Amino acid sequence: MGYDFHITRANSWFDSEQYPITLEEWESFARGNQSLELELDSSITFTNFGTLNIYALKCDPSRDVTLSWYDFRIEVTGIQDIEAIRACVILAEALQANFLGDEGEKYLPDGTGISEE
Hints:
Helix content: 10-25%
Shape: globular
Structural class: alpha+beta
Mean pLDDT: 89
Number of helices: 2
Strand order of the largest sheet: 2-3-4-5-1-6
Order of helices and strands: EHEEEEHEEE
Distance between the termini: 25 Å
Low-confidence stretches: none
């Protein structure tokens, strides 16, 4: 299992439901954002949420960062470098949200992560 990132309005991604990004808000944002592209051949199905779209953030022609809504936050996978982190921080800021790592560190616009401890 790889290291994942999260776009959330909460200070901890575990608390995303308290500060939600709704599915409708995410879909509207993602479809209107030129840096995101709907993955036509990919989706994910949850028993409690149904089938959800997966979007790609084109960071490099050879790989994609994928974003998908889950449990009132955006799950981000495939990050390989600081440029992808910076691009995701920009997306998070546009959603008035934070870009957090699995361990709770918050990423800044320059791509550096800071721990809240």
